[in-house]
Design goal:
The complex is a heterodimer. By secondary structure, chain A is an alpha/beta fold. Chain A has helices at residues 2-12, 53-60, 82-86, 104-114, 121-130, 146-157, 176-191, 203-209, 227-236, 278-287, 301-319, and strands at 13-24, 27-38, 42-46, 68-73, 76-77, 89-92, 164-168, 195-199, 212-217, 220-226, 239-244, 258-264, 267-272, 292-297. Chain B is mainly α. Chain B is 80% helix and 0% strand. Classes of the chains: A alpha/beta, B mainly alpha. The A-B interface holds A 58, 61, 63-65, 83-84, 86-87, 89, 91, 93, 95-99, 101, 110-111, 113-116, 156 and B 1, 3, 6-7, 10, 14, 17-18, 80, 83-95, 249-250.
Chain lengths: 320, 250
């Protein structure tokens, strides 16, 4: 019974990374990266520049040997079965290159054959259509725009019908329409059970697509979990801007649960104690006769959370 | 179709059908044209023994092919890495040995193409046909491993050096030194240093065999030491290239 349960978990959990450590010479590039992605889940990997996101992806895809920890893909140890699991992984690396002298259909056919996958013209045309490229075009890849290359890179990642998709900055170079198209493709794939790991600097992408995410700072996972869990923690530390029609904003400090972060004339920046619900606090302010003209929440919840997690680390570094 | 053959076909297509590849073949063709013209039009050179002329032409074809193999080898790894096209290839289910074999097969195709281009020139200077057949055979049997040696050497350089330009410079210098027996006089080659250099130089293994078979009319089988030396170099460079490419990180 336990074996059956374990197999069921493995079937659901397509990628498990535990305490990944990677050293290059005397430098520790990754020092405890962990993440778990289930079938049909889109997991966002966030972090400042140089945090180790792309290195983590290189290790997960078997391009970089790691020094500690474990990576299990489809329940199999990556080190023991790199070639076997790669058949079912689609990867879009950051700054992927293309054979500029080929056409897009020829390029995809070449990769489909390397994966020993279906390379019929219908399949290739369908993939190009899916990512928004013209299947009948004879244009050489060398003449493609950056956005078109990004779409082609995604099509290449999908060429072998992967169960796990790993995307490094998938919406780089895309216009707003292109980004929305790629979002739709990824949501469609997730609905079909494909697990997706994506790195992005665009918080809106993560916010819109990911059901779970993790944040890496200096090669270490500092936060990881489902979107709901992490954002509920983020909400506790949320900041608000309050605009008063009259009076001195400093006096707001007398309101229970309100802490003033800064104030400038009639504009006050405050945070709420974790046990105070925002809408109840605002109602009490109005009942008490505070001349409030506007209350704004800072950014998105994800942005607040991301900044608070990464700021803490940067501040600690500065203090040291 | 095997993945190795897919890679070979892709690489050979890129090499032979692109402007760069056609420029290579045109350049090789011009070099051999110029040399052939010199041999038949120069008063002094036209007095050369016919076998000597065939030997020189085979040596030049081999040197050009070794240069082509080395450049293609460097570009196959280092060039692809610089253009960011190597990573998608490494992310396929192929083993790195398969990738190396595919890329080497494209070098073989390039060598065949260059050999075909060289054939009319060799035939044109070998007017009496003296030892022409034996010369072509020894080029195929002994020239091929030497040319592939430089292909693997190019891959090794391309995988190991961070800068593509550095790989080309080092490769070119090595080839110039290795191919120097084509230019050195007999006295220098008979010196102690010349003999040691000849013994360890893969290029010498080929040209000495060309000399023996084409000029001295010796049998191909008598050239077995050169054959062994050429294949030892081929094996060594293959192992070096394979080791570097297997441990190649991005």
């Amino acid at each position: 019974m336990k074996q059956v349960q374990a197999n069921a978990n493995e079937a659901k959990n397509l990628l498990s990374v535990d305490c990944l450590v990677l050293r290059r010479g005397n430098t520790t590039v990754l020092n405890g990266v962990s993440l778990h992605i289930n079938s049909g889940e889109i997991y966002g990997l966030l972090g400042p520049n140089g945090a180790g996101k792309s290195t983590a992806i290189a290790a997960i895809t078997g391009l970089l040997p790691f020094t500690g920890g474990q990576i299990r893909v489809f329940g199999q140890d990556l080190i023991d079965s790199t070639q076997a699991v790669r058949r079912h992984i689609g990867v879009l690396p950051e700054d992927a290159g293309f054979y500029s002298w080929m056409t897009a259909p020829a390029y995809l056919t070449f990769y489909a054959r390397l994966f020993d996958s279906n390379h019929s013209p219908d399949k290739i045309g369908g993939l190009l259509d899916l990512v928004g490229l013209d299947p009948s075009s004879r244009q050489l890849i060398g003449a493609f725009s950056r956005g078109m290359k990004q779409r082609l890179g995604l099509a290449r990642a999908l060429v072998a019908d992967p169960r796990l998709l790993i995307l490094d900055e998938p919406t780089n170079g895309l216009d707003p329409r292109g980004r929305r198209d790629i979002h739709d493709v990824l949501l469609h794939l997730a609905a079909e059970g494909v697990a997706i790991l994506m790195c992005s600097h665009i918080l809106d992408d993560i916010d819109r697509l990911c059901s779970a995410f993790g944040i890496i700072v200096k090669g270490e996972t500092v936060a990881s979990g489902t979107r709901e869990d992490l954002l509920s923690k983020a909400a506790q530390g949320a900041r608000y801007e309050i605009f008063l029609e009259a009076g001195d904003g400093k006096e707001l400090a007398a309101v229970p649960g309100v802490t003033i972060a800064s104030h400038e004339g009639n504009r006050v920046e405050v945070s709420l104690a974790a046990w105070h619900r925002p809408h109840e606090t605002w109602a009490r302010l109005l009942e008490a006769g505070w001349p409030v003209s506007e209350i704004r929440k800072y950014g998105t919840g994800l942005e607040d959370f991301y900044l608070s997690v990464t700021d803490t680390d940067i501040n600690q570094e500065r203090a040291a | 179709m095997s993945p190795q053959w897919l890679i070979a076909r892709k690489e050979a297509g890129e090499l032979l059908l692109s402007g760069r590849g056609l420029a290579w073949l045109l350049g090789a063709s011009l070099a051999m044209s110029a040399f052939a013209l010199l041999l038949v039009s120069s008063t002094e050179l036209s007095l050369l023994d016919n076998a000597q002329v065939v030997y020189d032409m085979l040596g030049i074809a081999t040197a050009l092919a070794a240069l082509l193999a080395m450049v293609v080898g460097i570009d196959a790894i280092g060039g692809e890495r610089e253009r960011n096209t190597l990573i998608p290839l490494l992310l396929t289910p192929l083993r790195r040995n398969q990738i190396i074999t595919g890329k080497m097969a494209s070098i073989v195709i390039a060598w065949v193409a260059l050999f075909v281009v060289a054939l009319p020139y060799i035939w044109s200077v070998a007017s009496t046909g003296q030892n022409l057949g034996a010369g072509l055979l020894v080029t195929v049997v002994l020239g091929t491993p030497v040319i592939l040696t430089f292909g693997y050497y190019g891959m090794w350089l391309g995988a190991g050096m961070a800068q593509l330009v550095s790989a080309y410079v080092v490769g070119l210098l090595t080839l110039m030194v290795a191919a120097s027996p084509l230019l050195l006089g007999p006295a220098l080659r008979q010196s102690v240093i010349g003999r040691i250099f000849d013994a360890i130089n893969p290029f010498s293994a080929a040209v000495n065999a060309y000399d023996a078979v084409v000029i001295d009319s010796m049998s191909l089988l008598s050239q077995w030491p050169g054959f062994i030396a050429a294949f030892l170099w081929l094996g060594l460079t293959f192992l070096l290239a394979r080791s570097r490419i297997r441990h190649l990180t991005v």
